[in-house]
Specification:
Blueprint lengths: L9 E4 L5 H11 L3 E6 L14 E3 L5 E5 H6 L4 E4 L5 H11 L4 E4 L13 H7 L4 E6 L14 H7 L24 H23 L6 E5 H8 L1 H10 L16 E5 L4 E5 L3 H10 L14 H6 L1 H12 L4 H10 L4 E3 L3 H6 L1 H5 L3 E6 L2 E7 L23 H7 L4 H9 L4
Parallel strand pairs: 1-2, 1-6, 2-5, 6-7, 7-8
Antiparallel strand pairs: 3-4, 9-10, 10-11, 12-13
Length: about 400
Amino acid sequence: MANIPLSNIRVLDLSRILAGPWAAQYLADLGAEVIKVERPGSGDDSRHYGAPYVKDADGNPTSENFFHLSCNRGKMSITVDMAKPEGQEIIRKIVMESDVLIENFKFGDLARYGLDYETLHKLNPKLIYCSITGFGQTGPYRKRPGYDAVFQGMSGLMSVTGYPDSVPGGGPMKVGPSIVDIITGLNAVIGIVSALYHRDQNGGIGQQVDLSLFDSAVAALSHYVQIYLSSGTPPGRRGTQGNGGVPSQMFLCREGGLMLTAGNDSQYRRLCEAIGHPEMATDPRFKDGRTRISNRDALSAELQEVFLQKMPEEWLPALEAAGVPSGPIYNFEQVFDDPQIKERGMKVTVRHPHNDSVDLVGNPLKFSETPITDYRAPPLLGEHTAEILERFGFDAAQQDELKSRGVI
């Protein structure tokens, strides 16, 4: 592997499902050695989320599914039953020589096994211990479980997503992907890298990084939250319309649609020219940002009538030539057929134990001096157990004994 930013960092990944594994995958992309600990026999819950599966060389589905593929590339997998004392001792041995531990167990669960922050910090004061839970390590809800969709509702995200109650199909709407998990995972990466910097450059020691999905979701609502904090009035739902410059929304065309944002007066004037209606730029209702916001519904209706006259592929070149930020509404097939995505390497192909060619989503970070080039497939369940345990002093006979007792 090339000498990329985190090449000398070892991460012990005790997390499951998405937020924690996503954070650990990012660290693996950045060069860290990531050891994923899974339950013997069953592994990470996400391995059981169903099709689609990786296909073998003959086109038959294997045991490796889409969810596991999405957030575990570049890792090594070992199987350890941490409910058993021997399993706990294996974890502690690895902790002694690790830089980072990531876990997303419910509040207090790992203390039962002697794998909590206070215990492991005494064993390895340099350890960065990242805990990801629904509500964090403090507060009245800290013991509650939770999933992404719950926090999309509780954070206010659903209250500003979807169409108004007054239109057919209106009401709060969940965002498609598990976006709160992803945001929390990225926050975890920021916290871990910051804690490593403090430890290694500021003369500090290890510490606990406490991440809450609830906190992360609220913080990510950014300017929507600030509308409420500044005015006392919660923002409403506007479908595809934005809360900044107007117009900013999807417009239906003769077939399909397009998305555009004219975020300032100059872009709006160029939009009017590009669609053949320069008079809309001087209309008193739409002449500047404030009037367009006040009359957004009228402007939206007039623009919609215009865009219905042509196909998206007729409108988009004219909008691009005019410098109006705009784009098509893609499905995923179109996304990965786009020349920009191809040039940026956002689809990567890796060798997999079941197939010589498995496609994954690439990392969006592009470094000039330390590029991410070494993508490796997510591991099979327990694929590296023997290799890792041998490295930490467990010979073949000891491993056979542990296996016979269901520890590994």
